[in-house]
Structures are given as C-alpha cells and as structure tokens.
C-alpha cells in the first residue's frame, strides 16, 4: 500500500475511534490528502485504467494470460516482502526464515548533516550517494539514519525544522528510506537524533510521541525500517530517574504499536535507549523490560565510548538476556575514552555475541569521523576513510 494510503488509513481510523482526525482531512474537500496526510497540499490520485484500452479479443486473451503471470509475480513479491521482516526471540534478533540477524554498519546523517548542511539547500542525492558508498563499497548492511531538527532556525540556516512542521523534510526522509530499500539485505534504523520535542535530558515526551505516530504511519509497511526512539538519555548516573525514563520509553512504544494495530501491519523492531549516561547503561531494563504490547520486538540500544574493561557491563552481560544493539561507538580520543584498538575489540566481541553494531559516524565533521574532513557541506566530497573509517571498512569487508 502506498505511504499516502497508510497515513490516510491511520487518520481515518483515528477519526472513527476519537471522532476527530486532527485536521488531517478537510471535510469540505473532495477527499484529497497530501502525500504525508498533514499539510493539506495538492492531493495525489491513483491513475485510472480504462478497461476499454485492453485492445481486441486476441490482445485481451494475451492480457488474461499476462494477468495470471502477474498474479504469480505478485504472490512472489508479497512473499519476498514478508521475508524481510525481523523479529526478536529471547535475547536475539531473527529473520522471518529463523536465521539470527546481526546488522553491521554505521551512522549516517540526513540532509541537515550534523549542522554542516543546514545552511545549504537540502540535497537528498548527496545522502543517497553516501549510503551507496557505505553499503556498496564498504559492505555495510545496517545504517542508522540520524534525523536532526530544531525548534527554530538561526539566521544562517535554510532548513532544520522538525518533521511535523516541514513537509519537504518529511518527503526527503521518505525518499532516503526508500533508497535504502533498493539495497538487498540492508536495514535502516530511523532515529530521532536531535529533536526539539526531547526533554533537556534527552527523554521522549508527548511531542516525541506525536512525531513517532506520524513516522509509524509513513513507514508502516516498510519491513527494512527499525525505529530508534531518541538519541541519548543523559546524566542520571546513579539511576535515580531510571523508572521515569522507562515510563517515557514505554509510552512512546505504546503509541507506535497502537498505530500499527490500527493499520493491521506487523510490529517493527523498536530500539529503546539506555536510561543513563548518554544511553550507555541498560541495567534497569534487565529487571524491567518494556511491557507495552507485551514487549514484542523491542531491542535495547547502548552507546559505547568506553575502555574495553567496561564492555561486560555495557553490552556483554545485558545481551545474555536482552536483544541488544550498539547504536554508537568510536574512538572519542583524549585518553579517557576508547581507542581504535578497543573499537576493533568491540566489533570482534559483537560478532562473537551476534550483536548488531553501528559505528559513529559516516561524516567528516562530526567526530569521531569515519571519512576525512572536507570543506563546507561536503557535497561531492571524495569520502576517503580516516584511519577509524579504514578500520571499520576492513572489518565489514572481512579484511584484517
């Protein structure tokens, strides 16, 4: 079903449930809804095929035969589509065929590009080019697409407003995610990275939930998409606020699952982030896993910038009972944080435990950088790896 129809169906369902469609559909209109169901722009209509164009009887018979073949092709396409969905079981993530899944890759940025491109016109083709390099050349099969939005724009910024406010931005994200879908076996973690709806400590709020309801409707039938609720819940080093963070995460999961239930689509994987220390710690989830919709298809995301002696507490022990994902890691430098050698150790340990991982970041100006620095926004930059990038690339390619 086209994304337009998913969004329309969701809001009609919401209307039937609550008696209100929140202004998404104008009762005075002819039923047209814009491509994302929100902004009231020009409607998109399905093409109408005139059966009289089928031609003469012979052609019609031929078309009938073709129709049968098209039915077979459609069945095969549906089967392929169903085979892409991932699910959790115990402490692992599995394909529809029952194979253990361990995505490996890197973070990549949207058209705002870690602030670097907010002063230039959005360039979707550049993001797609970088995805091509990361997947086709570096052999990544997992990408975290970092979505970046702000409450208001500085004078130098051309774009940067949030998903609910910026129609063109939503359309750009859809185009980027659809591009990832052209890569066989590649999955994308759609992650709210910088968002004005977060609390000062990076927790999700009712505004975050609203954004996720919209995204869940947009990508309801995209099996290669995984949802990442927020970036990094900050501080809370003693865990005193763990229960509050957990509740905010659980509420957001519930909102996404409700959209999926209304649309009748499978449950996507949803990543909830560690409750402490910039998403590092998963301790609270060990005794209090997410319960919304029975906690189905929840994965637990940690960000690791620590020395190797911290690996057991950050991801090795949690992964014994929970489906764990490493959403960020890299050589942050300064001696207090992990080195490139320890990044290599992390990837080896993640492979051993079959934990998905995403390196930070496929960028030249958002350290620790996987590609070399470039001037300005970096459009058409050569995308040559740094030493950190070469280490990751070697690992993804199976080299030394």
How would you state the average pLDDT, rounded?
85
Major pleated sheet:
8 strands, parallel
**Quaternary:** single chain
Tell me the count of domains: 1
What is the share of helical residues?
A: 25-40%
Q: From N to C, what is the helix and strand string?
A: HHEEEHEHEHEHEHEHEHEH
Q: For this structure, what is the CATH homologous superfamily?
A: Glycosidases
Name the poorly predicted regions: 15-68
Query: CA-to-CA gap between the ends?
Result: 44 Å
The order of strands across the largest sheet is 9-8-7-6-5-4-3-10
Total count of strands? 10
Query: Rg, please?
Result: 22 Å
Could you name the CATH class?
Alpha Beta
Overall 3D form: globular
Q: Architecture, CATH level 2? A: Alpha-Beta Barrel
Counting DSSP H or I runs of 4 or more residues, the number of helices is 10
CATH topology: TIM Barrel
The chain-level structural class is alpha/beta
């Amino acid at each position: 079903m086209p994304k337009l129809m998913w969004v329309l169906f969701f809001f009609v369902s919401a209307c039937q449930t609550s008696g209100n469609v929140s202004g998404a559909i104008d009762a005075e209109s002819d039923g047209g809804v814009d491509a994302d169901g929100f902004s009231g722009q020009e409607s998109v209509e399905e093409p109408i095929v005139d059966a009289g164009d089928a031609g003469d009887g012979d052609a019609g018979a031929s078309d009938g035969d073709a129709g049968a073949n098209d039915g077979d092709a459609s069945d095969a396409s549906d089967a392929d589509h169903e085979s892409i969905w991932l699910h959790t079981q115990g402490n692992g993530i599995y394909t529809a065929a029952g194979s253990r899944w361990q995505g490996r890759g890197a973070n990549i940025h949207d058209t705002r590009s870690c602030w670097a491109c907010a002063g230039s016109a959005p360039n979707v083709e550049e993001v797609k080019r970088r995805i091509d390099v990361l997947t086709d050349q570096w052999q990544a099969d997992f990408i975290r697409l970092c979505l970046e939005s702000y409450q208001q724009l500085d004078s130098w910024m051309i774009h940067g407003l949030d998903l609910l406010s910026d129609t063109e931005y939503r359309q750009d994200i859809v185009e980027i995610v659809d591009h990832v879908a052209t890569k066989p076996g590649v999955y994308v973690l759609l992650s709210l990275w910088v968002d004005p709806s977060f609390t000062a400590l990076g927790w999700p709020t009712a505004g975050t939930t609203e954004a996720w309801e919209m995204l869940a409707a947009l990508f309801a039938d995209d099996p290669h998409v995984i949802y990442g609720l927020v970036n990094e819940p900050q501080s809370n080093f003693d865990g005193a606020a763990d229960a509050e963070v957990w509740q905010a995460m659980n509420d957001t999961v519930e909102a996404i699952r409700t959209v999926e239930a209304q649309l009748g689509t499978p449950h996507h994987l949803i990543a909830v982030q560690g409750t402490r220390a910039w998403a590092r710690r998963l301790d609270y989830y060990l005794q209090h896993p997410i319960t919304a919709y029975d906690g189905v298809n929840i994965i637990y995301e940690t960000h690791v910038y620590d020395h190797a002696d911290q690996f057991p507490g950050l991801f090795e022990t949690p992964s014994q009972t929970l489906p764990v994902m490493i959403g960020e890691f890299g050589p942050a430098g300064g001696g207090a944080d992990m080195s490139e050698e320890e990044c290599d150790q992390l990837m080896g340990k993640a492979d051993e435990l079959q934990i998905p991982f995403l390196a930070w970041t496929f960028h030249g100006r958002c350290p620790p950088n996987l590609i070399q620095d470039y001037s300005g926004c970096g459009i058409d930059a050569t995308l040559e790896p740094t030493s950190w990038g070469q280490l990751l690339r070697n690992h993804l390619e199976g080299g030394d």
